[in-house]
Amino acid sequence: MCLRLGGLNVSDFRKVLMKSGLVLVVLGHVSFIAAALLHGTVLRYVTAPHDAVSLQYCVVNIFSVASAIVVITSGIAAIVLSRYLPSIPLRWAVFSSSVACVLLSLTCALGLLASIVVTFATQGRALLAACTFESPELLALAPDCPFDPTRIYSSSLCLWGISLVFCVTESVFAVRCAQLAHQLLELRPWWGKSSHHMMEESPEPMEGHDLMSCPSLGP
After folding, report:
1. How many CB atoms lie within 10 A of CB 136?
2. Facing residues of 3 across strands?
3. How far is CA 132 from CA 46, 47, 126, 128, 135, in A?
4. Residues 163-179: pLDDT tens digits?
5. Are 167 and 64 a contacting pair, CB within 8 Å?
6. What is the pLDDT of residues 179-202, one digit of tens each?
């Protein structure tokens, strides 16, 4: 007999779980790099605890970094689980970390969207607070700025937009990993199906083989 998980045999289930984990690892690294670039090129010049807008920028960036670390950890755990499916603690670790990824990624996406909206609404005044001028028309006449004021506006919006896309994508793949771990744990299903429909055994006899290491079924 060969165990099947959610309509997939174990070999295909391992591949799907491993690919989802790899995607999370890649997305987490790219998000971390984007957050680091945003801090290095923009936020280190505009940090002002008394300014609510700049403080919001920094808090969202901190959440982005934390989310990227959790996403990378969850992806690594999913890859390890694809090799050691029978491990119950590892299943719970992947499920809980995936749920945490979804919550953090969606929170970061909302925060980044808020940063973009606030920046458009204020015309980037918080980004230019470190300069000595007050009018956006005087960008080229600001020799005392610690950065290039003609590029900080577009650079920040570009990096926020990229991070927003990655956060949404991370949440999608984190949901997928949570769903796969949910199937392994045989918990109460989310969509009204009973658990014995999610995990079933195929009728083909497989004497001498481990149920958790069945090969792919050929056509």
Report:
1. 12
2. 201
3. 13, 16, 13, 9, 10
4. 999 999 999 999 999 98
5. yes
6. 888 888 876 655 444 444 444 444
